[in-house]
Amino acid sequence: MLIEIQNKDSLAIHHDVAEAVDQMLRGYIPSTEVRERALDGGLTIRQPQKPAMVSLQGRQEQTERREGSKGKKQKMLRIYPYALSRERLERAIHGMGSPAVITNDLDEADVLLTLKSHAKRQSHKLREARGRNVEVRVVRSNTLTQMENFLRETFGSSAAGGSEDLAMQEVEDGVMEALENRRPVELSPQPKHIRRMQHIYIERSGMQSESKGQEPMRRIIIYPHR
Predict the structure, then answer these.
(1) Cβ(140)–Cβ(186) below 8 Å
(2) Could you name the CATH architecture of 75-159?
(3) Of 40, 67, 161, 170, which one has the greatest count of Cβ atoms within 10 A?
(4) Which CATH class is domain 161-226?
């Protein structure tokens, strides 16, 4: 039995909790027994009525109005991934809760996201995107961390890219990329103490690394096995 206190003189009672939950999931207002205290102190019992159907559209409109009261709803960004892992991009979008979707149709896209190395080649697909006024954005490598960084930059997340957790995730992805592609991988600039942790991780992975650049833009390059 589930009892809801509507106010100090009224109770709503669900005798079968499982059935009430099932009715709500199917879009119905569950039947309830209402007990009210009368002015003379007596108790009035109203028997359950037939469950009423709730308009799903109405509930969505109510939700949107509530969200609207907190601020304008952010437009959904449609991303066309080119030469990128779609699965990793989907993980990044889902994990960060970003208002973005992946599209396979360039005509529907707001952004074409590709690797920096591919952008330099000026392929037919990139020329086609620019001809259709689709913005072209790039990431340095085909890793989850780089895609998350792109989403942070795009949606103005307050999360900074220099935290230890993000930095260590990036170095893990970088080591994997260097092994797979047999080429150097450059990481994001990090403070000295984080770079030290990254160097240790790379060394334990059996690879080589070096720091380059000047503070605060000093960063690590991972070298694959020679």
Answers:
(1) yes
(2) 3-Layer(aba) Sandwich (3.40)
(3) 170
(4) alpha beta
Rounded CA separation 208/221 (Å): 9
Output the CA torsion 159→162→163→167 (10° steps). 120
- Provide φ and ψ at 14, rounded to 5°: -105, 110
In degrees and rounded to multiples of 5, residue 199 shows phi and psi of -60, -45
Q: What pLDDT is stored for residue 78 in this prediction?
A: 95
Predicted confidence (pLDDT) per residue in 77-116, tens digit: 999 999 999 999 998 888 777 889 999 999 999 999 999 8
Cα dihedral: 167, 169, 173, 174 (round 10): 20
Extents of the domains making up the chain: 2-70, 75-159, 161-226
Matching CATH topology for 75-159 and 161-226? no
CA distance 9 to 36: 6
Q: How far is CA 61 from CA 21, 99, 214, in A?
A: 22, 18, 53
